[in-house]
Amino acid sequence: MTTIAINAAHSEEPLLCSGHAACPGCVEPLTLRHILDVMGPQTMAVIPPSCMAIIAGPQPYSSLRIPVYQPTLESSAAAATGLRRALDARGERDTQVIVLAGDGGTYDIGFQCLSSAAERNEDILYFCFDNEGYMNTGAQKSSSTPLFARTGSTPAGKVSRKKNLSEIMAAHNVPYVATASIGHLADLKRKVAKAKATRGFRLITLLIPCLDGWGVADDSALTTARAAVACGAFPLFEIEDGLRYTINQESPSRPVAEYLALQRRYRHLTPAQTQALQSELDSGWARLQQRVAASALASAGQGA
Questions:
Q1: DSSP class of 252
Q2: 86-100, 216-230, 266-280, 287-301: which range is least confident on average?
Q3: What is the radius of gyration, based on Cα positions, of the chain?
Q4: What percent of the chain has pLDDT over 70?
Q5: For 101-116, how does the pLDDT look when each residue is reduced to its tens digit (9 = 90+)?
Q6: Regarding the domain delimited by 2-303, which CATH topology (the fold level of the hierarchy) does it fall under?
Q7: Where are the domains of the chain?
Q8: Global pTM value
Q9: From CA 46, how far away is CA 42, in angstroms rounded?
Q10: Most buried residue, 26, 98, 232, 281, by most Cβ within 10 Å?
Q11: What is the structure's pLDDT at 303?
């Protein structure tokens, strides 16, 4: 395939070019750069309308040195499925097909295609860049937006909880589901490499603090990403075959109030609401530990 041959010539160069259109201080291109470093040039990307589509640039131009296809917002997983099957028909099974999508196109508008691809166990690697809202159209809420967060469409704070995408996808019994953060780079790159070496449907959700949408200082995105993990707002874990849970971090060591204080979208919270969020995170961490314990017992039983 000509495109792959051209990419191979650039194997020693970064696969994300400078001069892209990301906001100054955004960690999304930084995250992507490390993903592409692991994936390598023999990769094709599907990028729906999202912040990533702005970063990549309008077709036929691209800031990525790999082939890029930009479908409609709702059809990323279906488009990736088509590319995967076309490559397989050509005998090019070593070329990876990835999706680089936002939470709006994953948790919400693209969820039907996503669930269908997972149910069929399509051989694609789906990356969700989760900035917890529709950020490049005015910072409206998505189903990934956390409870009480102020957005363009929830000016008094969101009244529903964040959708648990990882466990929903794990319920499809797909080979690999994980969460990762640029604030924990070694863990992120290990998970990308593990997903690359796995066949079947794989999904990695990556937290992307949005400077403008969250109200974070331009130089504080990494600090915010690390704080999200430290307080348990974005725990790092992986789920294999829908059953085996592994936690990839120490127990939360910081109160959620410290994480909330970094962001303008939570400035309206009352002490009672802050405590409610802390209780929710505590419960979520306990539930995750129960999943790990249950999967360990199941594995031990199968080995007996």
A1: P
A2: 287-301
A3: 19
A4: 95
A5: 999 999 999 999 999 9
A6: Rossmann fold (3.40.50)
A7: 2-303
A8: 0.93
A9: 14
A10: 98
A11: 63
CA distance 158 to 151: 8
- Residue 86 and residue 77: Cα distance in Å, rounded? 14
| CA nearest to 145, candidates 29, 265, 42 | 265
Q: Which two structure tokens, joined as six digits, stand for 209? A: 């603090």
Helix (H) or strand (E) holding 207: strand 202-207
Residue 175 preceded by cis peptide, ω within 30: no
Q: Find out whether 31 and 206 touch, Cβ atoms under 8 Å.
A: yes
Q: State the pLDDT at residue 209.
A: 98
d(CA 26, CA 211): 7
Question: How many Cβ atoms are within 10 Å of 94's Cβ, its own excluded?
Answer: 8
- Could you tell me which of 189, 234, 186 has the C-alpha nearest to residue 208? 234
Least confident span in 2-16, 92-106, 217-231, 283-297: 2-16
Q: How far is CA 272 from CA 162, 254, 266, 283, 297, in A?
A: 19, 18, 13, 16, 38
Which are the contacts of 272, defined by CB distance < 8 A and separation ≥ 6? Answer: none
Residues in the chain: 304
What is the band of 252 on the pLDDT scale with cuts at 50, 70, 90? very high
